[in-house]
């Protein structure tokens, strides 16, 4: 009861944590910029603002053109992966489900690999097409998993899960074949696959913003339906819920969110497992609260991880996916242990 009474506190706390993380992300770097100067510089760019920026022209360019879009992109990617992971865990009723479950990661990897391997021969600026190819590949991977699951008959989520595994294996094999053929491009391919936000800009933010807004709106609106699904299909059906239709909508929205995130960041693991699991322990099992808090917490988490990735070995930079793996792998073991103990 105490958790229910205090549940309303978590979204404001998550929003405050995100704001603090983004401020830290914008301030961190070789050229230190204080929070007051950041606020004044941003306020000076508002229409009819009487405030003058305290930053030099170079500092202003670093703030607005490099740090700010990277932080915004990190927040978008982290929020999308965490909310998609929470949705997948609700649909499959499994705390180990993650956003890459149905072939989104392998599809995105194949799409990006094809452009990096052969794009120079066909395109003027192949690097600019990588996000589009990764986005299309992720959606194609999920669509193939759906089609294969439908061909296999009415097996519910178990059939869809097996179809996702089969599609992921096939697409990963195809990606490995391309890498073998174009071995000279391995460095660029692995650099993308390890994940990062270093090349992200306002163009990337603008590209994924519509898909992020649409997918998040659908997922946030499905919290109550996921709570009903948690009761079991028969109970949900007795309450007038079309379980199959709800699963289709939720998985489609979560897959769209995953595709949008992966297209601009590469493959960043564990965010969609770790963040929703922690949130569930804090706010309870109701998805009307888990989904929005996961969105905000995932955004704050990835912004903070990105700060670590670009400062721990500065001036060099760690791949973002490597940092999340170092943080997430031990927690994943913890989840496995607690899940096994509860089953026992």
From TrEMBL:
<keyword id="KW-0472">Membrane</keyword>
<feature type="transmembrane region" description="Helical">
    <location>
        <begin position="260"/>
        <end position="279"/>
    </location>
</feature>
<keyword id="KW-0813">Transport</keyword>
<comment type="similarity">
    <text>Belongs to the binding-protein-dependent transport system permease family. FecCD subfamily.</text>
</comment>
<keyword id="KW-1003">Cell membrane</keyword>
<feature type="transmembrane region" description="Helical">
    <location>
        <begin position="160"/>
        <end position="178"/>
    </location>
</feature>
<feature type="transmembrane region" description="Helical">
    <location>
        <begin position="318"/>
        <end position="336"/>
    </location>
</feature>
<feature type="transmembrane region" description="Helical">
    <location>
        <begin position="100"/>
        <end position="122"/>
    </location>
</feature>
<keyword id="KW-1133">Transmembrane helix</keyword>
<dbReference type="InterPro" id="IPR000522">
    <property type="entry name" value="ABC_transptr_permease_BtuC"/>
</dbReference>
<dbReference type="GO" id="GO:0033214">
    <property type="term" value="P:siderophore-iron import into cell"/>
</dbReference>
<protein>
    <submittedName>
        <fullName>Hemin transport system permease protein HmuU</fullName>
    </submittedName>
</protein>
<feature type="transmembrane region" description="Helical">
    <location>
        <begin position="208"/>
        <end position="229"/>
    </location>
</feature>
<dbReference type="Pfam" id="PF01032">
    <property type="entry name" value="FecCD"/>
</dbReference>
<feature type="transmembrane region" description="Helical">
    <location>
        <begin position="128"/>
        <end position="148"/>
    </location>
</feature>
<dbReference type="GO" id="GO:0022857">
    <property type="term" value="F:transmembrane transporter activity"/>
</dbReference>
<dbReference type="InterPro" id="IPR037294">
    <property type="entry name" value="ABC_BtuC-like"/>
</dbReference>
<feature type="transmembrane region" description="Helical">
    <location>
        <begin position="291"/>
        <end position="312"/>
    </location>
</feature>
<keyword id="KW-0812">Transmembrane</keyword>
<dbReference type="GO" id="GO:0005886">
    <property type="term" value="C:plasma membrane"/>
</dbReference>
């Amino acid at each position: 009861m105490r958790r229910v009474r205090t549940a309303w506190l978590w979204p404001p706390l998550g929003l405050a944590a995100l704001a603090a993380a983004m401020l830290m992300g914008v301030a961190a770097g070789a050229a230190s910029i204080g929070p007051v100067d950041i606020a004044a510089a941003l306020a000076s760019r508002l229409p009819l603002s009487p405030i003058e920026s305290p930053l030099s022209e170079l500092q202003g360019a670093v703030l607005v053109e490099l740090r700010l879009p990277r932080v915004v992109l990190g927040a978008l990617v982290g929020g999308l992966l965490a909310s998609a992971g929470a949705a997948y865990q609700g649909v499959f009723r499994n705390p180990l489900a993650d956003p890459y479950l149905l072939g989104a990661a392998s599809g995105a990897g194949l799409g990006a690999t094809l452009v990096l391997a052969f794009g120079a021969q066909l395109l003027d600026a192949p690097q600019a097409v990588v996000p589009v190819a990764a986005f299309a590949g992720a959606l194609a991977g999920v669509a193939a998993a759906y089609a294969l699951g439908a061909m296999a008959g009415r097996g519910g989520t178990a059939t869809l899960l097996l179809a996702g595994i089969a599609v992921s294996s096939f697409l990963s094999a195809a990606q490995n074949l391309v890498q073998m053929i174009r071995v000279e491009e391995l460095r660029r391919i692995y650099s993308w696959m390890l994940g990062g936000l270093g090349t992200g800009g306002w163009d990337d933010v603008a590209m994924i913003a519509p898909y992020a807004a649409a997918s998040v709106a659908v997922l946030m609106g499905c919290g109550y339906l996921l709570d009903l699904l948690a009761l079991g299909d028969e109970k949900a059906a007795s309450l007038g819920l079309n379980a199959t239709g709800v699963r289709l909508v939720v998985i489609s929205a979560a897959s769209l969110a995953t595709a949008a995130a992966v297209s601009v960041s590469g493959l960043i693991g564990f965010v969609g497992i770790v963040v929703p699991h922690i949130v569930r322990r804090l706010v309870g099992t109701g998805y009307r609260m888990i989904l929005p808090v996961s969105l905000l917490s995932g955004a704050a988490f990835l912004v903070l991880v990105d700060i670590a990735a670009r400062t721990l070995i500065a001036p060099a930079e760690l791949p973002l996916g490597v940092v999340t793996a170092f943080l997430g792998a031990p927690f994943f073991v913890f989840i496995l242990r607690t899940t096994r103990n509860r089953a026992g």
